[in-house]
Amino acid sequence: MFKVQSNTQQRALRVQSDSTEYLPDAPPAGTATSTIFPKTSLYMTPLSPDPIVMVNPSPLNFPQVLMNQSVNRTISIMNGGGGVAAISSISLSGNPFFTITNLPDLPQNLSTGQNIPLTIQYAPTAAGDHSAVLTVVDNTTRLTHTVDITGNCMDPYIYTLPYSQNFDAVSIPNIPLDWQKHVTSTTTYAYVQTNDAGYSNPNCVGMYNAEDMSSQLFLICPPLDNSISISSSRVCFYAKSNNQTSQLSVGVMSDPADPTTYVETQIVQLTSQYSEQIVS
Q1: Cβ atoms within 10 A of the Cβ of 251, count?
Q2: Of 63, 235, 251, 277, which has the fewest CB atoms closer than 10 Å, so is most exposed?
Q3: Is 46 helix (H, G, I), strand (E, B) or coil?
Q4: Predicted confidence (pLDDT) per residue in 253-277, tens digit
Q5: Is the distance from CB of 264 to CB of 218 less than 8 angstroms?
Q6: DSSP readout, 142-190?
């Protein structure tokens, strides 16, 4: 909300120019004008008449990532000042799990407000904490700009049994990072997510597809290491349904990212009361 003032003099309502100085008493031709206008004027100017190289965000912290998966984040190299900033070098050192996927041809000259968007990819193949340093050199101010980059990788594999999960460590509606879900439906109301209606408090996982009977909903546990025999293992869980005729399919997948690799092992008949289900 702006306080306004009225005048017999016409003023421009909207003006945009990167090179022409704005004169309120003489608005450029072709712009909408009015005798009612805000009492506030905003003038956008460079931070300095000289080039200022700005690298954002700094530092760059990746979210936790599962092993053998990748996440991309963008870093912007911008000239926040006047003149021209000449970017002569961009390099990434440290852990090789971090890479620049779109390194531009250099050198590049950046005028006021121009930027170079860099995509940094974190694709870890080993669990643990990892770090790297992005270094940007500009020949105009003769300065070196650095950005610290960090990431953490989780190994999702199950190496020993028994394994248990009660979903209590996550905030509703999230599921644990090492679990996965797939929802294919013609309605936006289908979901696989945590809620507070579980057999044990506070959390459980709910699956809903009442408005599209052809929906495909998958809740996928972390993968088993090859040292664990599937044929000698079993899964135990408590489940119920609001519909007496509901059935739950339990099976295995060779590729958790590909629902077409699902092979059904057993169909479980659910009732309106929680009951223990054991599938082997």
Answers
A1: 13
A2: 63
A3: coil
A4: 998 889 999 999 999 999 999 999 9
A5: no
A6: TEEEEEEEEEEEE---B-SS-----STTS-TT---TT-EEEEE-SSTT-
Give first-to-last CA distance, the chain, whole Å. Answer: 65
Q: Where does residue 112 rank: exposed (0-12), middle (13-18), buried (19+ CB within 10 A)?
A: buried
Q: How far is CA 248 from the centre of its chain?
A: 31
User: Nearest 5 degrees, angle CA 220-CA 124-CA 91?
Assistant: 145
Output the pTM of the full model.
0.72
Distance of CA 91 to the CA centre of its chain: 24
Q: How many CA atoms lie within 13 A of 17 on its CB side?
A: 12
**What does pLDDT average to over the chain?**
88
Look up residue 82 and give its two tokens: 């006047």
**37-83 pLDDT, tens per residue?**
565 666 566 677 889 999 999 999 999 999 999 999 999 999 999 89
